[in-house]
Task: structure prediction
Amino acid sequence: MVLQDQKFPASADVLGRFERIADNGAIADELGTLLGRAPLFSDFTREDVKSLSEYMGVYRADVGETIIREGDVGDFMLLIVRGEVDILKQGVHREQQHMTTVGAGTTIGEMSMIDGEPRFASCRTTQATTFGVLTRDNMAKIILEQPQLGAKILVKLVTMLSARLRQTSAKLMRYMEGIIS
Amino acid sequence: MVLQDQKFPASADVLGRFERIADNGAIADELGTLLGRAPLFSDFTREDVKSLSEYMGVYRADVGETIIREGDVGDFMLLIVRGEVDILKQGVHREQQHMTTVGAGTTIGEMSMIDGEPRFASCRTTQATTFGVLTRDNMAKIILEQPQLGAKILVKLVTMLSARLRQTSAKLMRYMEGIIS
Result:
């Protein structure tokens, strides 16, 4: 196994309070709406999305729900299908700082999905939101059962993390040089 | 050796000026010294390293050589086998700022290897340095020909980028909150 499983509790507890779409065809349809929109799917065919839908759950949350909580152990990532989510991080005085707002097509929580470290920030819905969930266990299954699809997903994750790391590092450099203060 | 040369087209003109180890067995031996030391290899078996060595070149650079130049297009990553490298980034006034120094086991340039964006920083040897090179083309070949090994490498890259992104974001947060200035 490439990804160590059994290391972290199943995600079901955290997600149990959200309405879940159980039908595979419906999941594929929901995810299919992101083709051409979600960076994760930028090289995906409809077939890829159909294969992936067998490994993903789709959930619906109301407005004002916290779907990921900073500091929690989390072993899944989210893909927002519809709706909008605030990304919040606790400041030094434990107040919630608004970092950004993201919508359909955005992937959240992929770092913890892969490395099992605590959640870096919280995510709260600003409207009714539909999201796909990919757990670490299922990512490991994809790699084993459909390695080409697994590699496609992993390459996308590396690309997205690289882009974010470049942006964050560039911003940090500007702070360090005193251009922003 | 023929297989090696087919799999490792001396792609990077940039690397042409460094002494290259051409023998596959020697490459595997060099990379093997990193087992148990390099984060990239943390789940690797000796067999994995042997497979990977067929897709990697190993080079030697003298002290004071720039092996990656900020802003260049680059389609390969480095794995330092022996030696030490300064990571330098141009400041606003175009002066070289020293960011960090890294040694054996460290992976460099994986962002450009995957996403093809210009190099974010420069790398200059502070002593005679031996390094492995994995090009994007060969990463693609590994994914096709040895998908499990490909997934293993990609999972490591995601994990390493996640860790760096967490560190960089946390540091940025501290600057933004005025704790460091």
About this structure: The mean pLDDT of chain B is 87. The longest strand of chain B covers residues 96-103. Helices of chain B lie at 2-7, 24-32, 46-53, 110-115, 136-145, 147-176. The two ends of chain B are 54 Å apart (CA to CA).
